[in-house]
Amino acid sequence: MHSPNLTQENIARIRALFPGCVTEVKGEDGQLKLAVDFDQLKQELSESIVEGPQERYHLNWPGKRAALLTANAPIAKTLRPCREESVNFDTTQNLFIEGDNLDALKLLQETYLGKVKMIYIDPPYNTGNDFIYEDDFAENAEEFLKRSNQKDEEGNRLMANTEANGRFHSDWLSMIYPRLKLARNLLSDDGVIFISIDDNEAHNLRKICDELFGIENLFGIFQWRRRQRADNRNQSRVSPDHEYIAAYSKSGTAILRGTEIDLSKYSNPDNDPRGPWASIDLSGLATATQRPNLHYDIIDPNTGISYPPNPSRGWSKSKENVLKMIEERLILFPKSPSGRPREKKFVKDLQSNVTGFSTCLDSKAVGYTTNGTREVTELIGGKYFDFPKPVNLLKDILIQVTKFNDIVLDFFAGSATTAHAVMQLNAEDGGNRKFIMVQLPELCDEKSEAFKAGYKTIAEISKERIRRAGTKILEGECREGWRKDIGFRAFKIDSSNMVDVYYTPDALEQGQLEFFIDNIKPDRTPEDLLFQVLLDWGVDLSLPIRKEIIHPQITQMDADSKTEKDNLRESAKSADKTSFEVFFVDDNALVACFDTGVNEDLVKELARFEPLRVVFCDTRYQSDNDKINVEQIFKQMSPHTEVRSI
Fold first, then answer.
1. Separation between Cα atoms, residue 519 and residue 184, nearest integer Å
2. Which is nearest to 398 in space by CA: 375, 427, 374, 376?
3. What 3-state DSSP class applies to 139?
4. Is 571 exposed, middle or buried (0-12, 13-18, 19+ CB in 10 A)?
5. How far apart, in whole angstroms, are the C-alpha atoms of residue 290 and residue 99?
6. Contacts of 558 (CB under 8 A, 6+ apart)
7. Torsion angles phi and psi, residue 566, rounded to 5
8. Distance (Å, rounded) from C-alpha 119 to C-alpha 248?
9. DSSP 388
10. Which residues are within 8 A (CB) of 616 and not within 5 positions of it... i.e. 6 or more apart?
11. Residue 416 per-residue DSSP state
C-alpha cells in the first residue's frame, strides 16, 4: 500500500546503465542493501581521474581508476582496408582487424553497439611475464619497484622477495578491465560473453565480470579438461589439467540452447500402455548426515528382497514417493540381487526434450589442446601456438548461443579458432553467422618455427589459418543452400585519415597555409576515407560495396539507346572528359565520392540515385558555389538524402 520507492527505481536505472556503480553497503539497521557508488559514477562521467575512495565491497587494485579512464578516453584512429590480405573483399561479411584490441573495441562502438550476439576471448593468462598489451597506464617492473620502495634510485634492492606478483595481478587487471567494459557495450541484450582463463586470475576475472556485467548475469563457470595425460614436470606433483570458461550475459533475456535428450533411447519393450520409457538411475547425491530422509531400504514387494542405499549417495527420492511409485509401477527392480532399483521414465512425462548445458564440458567430445595443436599444424604446417583451443570446443559454445545470422566477436583472435569454428558450423547447418576477429600484430620470435616459415607476426598466422580453413571447408561436405562465405575483409588500425591541426587560425603564418589546402593525409586512398565514414556514421562494415566510374556529362547527354550512351561514354574517355570514382554502399544506403573537382553535374547525377546518405570531401569541390549548391540540389531532387562532408 506504499507509493513506489523512487530511490530504488533510480538505483535500478543506474545499475542497468553502469552495473559497476551499484554496490553493497551496510544500512543503519545493520542489513546489507544496494546503493550507488558515487565515486565510481563520477568516474564514469568524468574525463579525468576522480579521487575520493570510501569503504565498500568492491575489487580494487593500483591503476583501476586509470584503467577506467582509459576505457572511456576517445582515440583519433581509424580502420584502413587491406584488400591484398583479404579474401573475397567485395562480398564477404566477415572482418579481421589487425591492431591493439583496445583501439579496435573503441572504433567498433558506434557501428556494432548492441549487435554482437556472442563474444569469445582467450586472453593471455597471467604467468608473471610482462604483457604485450601495454596501455598508457601500464608501468614496467623497474618503475613499480621504485614506486613501491623496493628499489632506490640507483637500482639497489631495499627488501627481499622483489618477485612477488602483486604488480602482475594489477597489470593483468588493468589490461583486461577496459577491454571487457567496452566489450559489454557491443553485446546485444540477449548476448553472452565467454572468457577462457586458468587458476592464476580466475578469482579476479569473476570479480571484474560481477562488477561489469552484474553478478545476477553470471551464466556459469564451465570447466574444461585441456590435457589428456597428467603433467609430470611440476615439482609440486600437482597437474593443472583443467581451465575455466566464465560465461556472462548482457541481461536476463539471454538463454542457452541446452542439450537435446536422445529420444532414441526410449522404447517400449513391455508394451506399457503409457508409451515409450527409459531406465533412469535412482541414486541420489547426499550422505545420511546431509539428507537422512533419503537413506532407507527399498523392498521389492514381489520378492521381498531389500535394497539398501549407497552410504555416500542415498536415493534421489523420499521413501513416501518411492512407495507411491511402486504402486504406480514406476520402479524397475533388478533380476539379480546384486542389481539396483531404477526409475521408469516415460517420454510423455518429460517437461522438455532439452536438458541444461553442463558446466563440466565433455573433453572427449569437444577435444583437448592436443586436438587444437593438430588442427593448426595440419592447416599451416607448423606448431606455431601454445595450447590452441580445438574447433569443436568453440562449435559447442556457438551452438548454445548463436542463430543463423548472428555476429560473433573474438578480440584475442590468436590462432583464429573462433573464425574457423564459425565457418565450419555455418557449413554444417547452412547458417550465415558472421565473425569479427581482432589480433595484435605481435612479432614472432626470430627463433620460432613461425618466423622461420616466413610469418613475421601472429596476425599473419591468424589470417593464413582462416584462408586455409575456408578452403578445406569448401572441399568437404557443405549444407545445401549455404552461401559459402569463407572470406574476410582485412583492416589495419592506423592514425586518422585527417591531417592533424596543431594551430589556431590566428597562430598560422602565411607560409603555412599551403599545408591546409587539403584536410586529408596524402597517403590515404578513397577507400580509406570510405571506411572512416562508415565507422563515424555507424554503418555496418560488412555491407556490399560497389565502385563505379561516373561521367556526369555523358549521363546528361541525349541518347536514344544504351548502345549510343555507351558510345558517348567511350568517346568522352578518349577526349579526357572529367570522370569521378563513386562508391555505392548497399546500393543506395550510402553514396560517397572523395575525388577533387566535385561539381553540380556530378551532384545532380548522384541525386538521381536518391541515396539515404551522400558524402564528399569538404576541400575538394570545384568551386565555393558548387559546395554551397550541393544541399539545395539534393533538397530539390532527393529531399530525404542526408548530405555530409569530411
1. 35
2. 427
3. coil
4. exposed
5. 55
6. none
7. -65, -40
8. 10
9. P
10. 592, 593, 594, 598, 630, 645, 646
11. T
Backbone angles phi, psi at 475, to 5 degrees: -75, -20
pLDDT value of position 159: 43
Closest to 529 measured CA to CA, from 551, 545, 513: 545
Q: How far, in Å, CA of 106 to CA of 97, rounded?
A: 12
Give pLDDT, residue 499.
81
C-beta of residue 542 within 8 angstroms of C-beta of residue 95: yes
pLDDT for the residue 136: 46
Instruction: Report the relative pairing of strands 331-332 and 590-592 from DSSP bridges.
Output: unpaired
Strand extents, DSSP E, 101-241:
116-121, 187-197, 218-225
Beta bridge mates, 407? 434
The grid coordinates of residue 120 equal 569469445
Do residues 553 and 125 lie in contact, with contact meaning Cβ atoms separated by under 8 Å?
no
Q: What is the pLDDT of residue 76?
A: 87
Close Cβ partners of 506 (under 8 Å, ≥ 6 residues apart): none
Give the residue ranges of the chain where pLDDT is below 70.
1-6, 52-54, 127-168, 232-236, 500-517, 553-577
What are the CA-CA distances from residue 644 to residues 583, 590, 593, 599, 639 (Å)? 15, 11, 11, 15, 14
Cβ(309)–Cβ(289) below 8 Å: no
For residue 525, count other CB atoms closer than 10 A to its CB: 14
- Look at the alpha carbons of 518, 519, 521, 527 in this order and tell me if their dihedral is positive or negative: negative
Q: What is the pLDDT of residue 562?
A: 57
pLDDT value, residue 577? 56
pLDDT for res 468: 97
**DSSP code of 360?**
B
Residues contacting residue 263 through CB under 8 Å, at least 6 positions apart? 276, 347, 353
Lookup result for grid cell 514417493:
321
Across the beta sheet with 277-281, the strand order is 277-281, 342-346, 331-332
Long-range CB contacts (within 8 A, 24+) of 362-369: 363/224, 363/225, 363/226, 363/228, 365/392, 365/396, 366/224, 366/390, 366/392, 366/393, 366/395, 366/396, 367/391, 367/392, 367/393, 368/225, 368/226, 368/227, 368/228, 369/226, 369/227
Residue from 472, 368, 457 nearest 414 by CA: 457
Q: What is the DSSP letter of 131?
A: P
Q: What is the pLDDT of residue 582?
A: 95
Q: 450: closest CA among 386, 375, 359?
A: 386
- CA neighbor of 81 nearest in space, from 497, 619, 591: 497
Of 69, 74, 48, 97, the C-alpha closest to 536 is: 74
Work out the end-to-end distance of the chain between its first and last CA atoms, rounded to an integer number of angstroms.
58
Buried b (16+ CB within 10 A) or exposed e, 216-226: ebebbbbebbb
φ, ψ of residue 601 in degrees (nearest 5):
-60, -45
From residue 283, how far is each of 8, 287, 381, 428, 645 by CA, in Å?
Answer: 45, 11, 50, 38, 72
Q: Which of 338, 207, 309, 189 is nearest to 255 (CA)?
A: 189
Query: For residues 396 and 394, what is the distance between their CA atoms, to the nearest angstrom?
Result: 5
pLDDT of residue 575: 45
* Cα pseudo-dihedral 525, 527, 530, 535, rounded to 10: -100
Torsion of CA 322, 326, 332, 334, to 10 degrees: 90
For residue 169, what are the contacts with CB-CB under 8 A and spacing of at least 6? 61, 126, 201, 204
Residue 5 confidence (pLDDT): 67
- 8 Å CB contact between 103 and 495: no
Q: What is the pLDDT of residue 419?
A: 98
Distance between CA 344 and CA 332 in Å, rounded?
Answer: 6
> Three cell numbers at 542?
560488412
